[in-house]
């Protein structure tokens, strides 16, 4: 396998998060979802969770998945976004580094090979998941608008996508 594929090629690509066939992956034996927040569950400027995002999480939970909102963003951002819910989250995940994944594994009491990562960025969500042998789902970004730090990643991402032939 080419190095670039090994590092960045998602196991599954979706146009939108609601296209995910949760039952199928539950049947395959997966147990938990590590769900990115910004531009996956909601645009970064949306301050608190809305009904649509609640439905996404509820439907995953109803299928039998443990769900963890898994974000590189701060406790303020993630905590505020989820404050009307009791959903579990992990902030400062430091994706693509291993630390957050190890914390998530502990928190959810699951093996990483039984986890599915969902996120909108190759350089954090996909790269991190692939390194940790987590099934990686790349979900196209919800909106074109990104925070300044993400803009740099997007620039690199476009180059990687070109090389991946996607
Ligand atoms: Mg994101």
Explain this structure.
With 166 residues, the protein is α/β, with parallel strands linked by helices. The chain has one domain: Rossmann fold, CATH 3.40.50.1000. The chain is built from seven helices and six strands. A six-stranded parallel sheet has the order 1-6-5-2-3-4, sandwiched between helices. It starts with a helix and ends with a helix. The mean pLDDT is 94. The protein binds magnesium ion. The site of magnesium ion has 7 residues, from loops.
Give a quick summary of the entry.
With 166 residues, this protein is an alpha/beta fold.
Features:
15% strand; 6-stranded parallel β-sheet; alpha/beta; binds magnesium ion; 42% helix; globular; Rossmann fold; 6 strands; 166 residues
């Amino acid at each position: 396998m080419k190095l670039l594929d090994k590092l960045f090629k998602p196991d599954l690509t979706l146009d939108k998060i609601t296209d995910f066939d949760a039952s199928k992956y539950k049947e395959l034996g997966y147990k938990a979802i590590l769900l990115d927040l910004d531009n996956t569950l909601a645009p970064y400027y949306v301050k608190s969770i809305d009904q649509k995002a609640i439905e996404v999480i509820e439907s995953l939970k109803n299928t039998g998945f443990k769900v963890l909102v898994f974000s590189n963003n701060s406790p303020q951002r993630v905590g505020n976004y989820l404050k009307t819910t009791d959903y579990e989250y992990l902030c400062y995940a430091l994706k693509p580094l291993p630390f957050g994944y190890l914390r998530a594994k502990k928190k959810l009491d699951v093996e990483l090979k039984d986890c599915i990562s969902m996120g909108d960025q190759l350089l954090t969500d996909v790269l991190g998941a692939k390194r940790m042998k987590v099934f990686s789902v790349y979900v196209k970004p919800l909106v074109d608008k990104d925070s300044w730090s993400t803009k740099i990643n997007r620039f690199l991402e476009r180059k990687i996508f070109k090389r991946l032939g996607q």
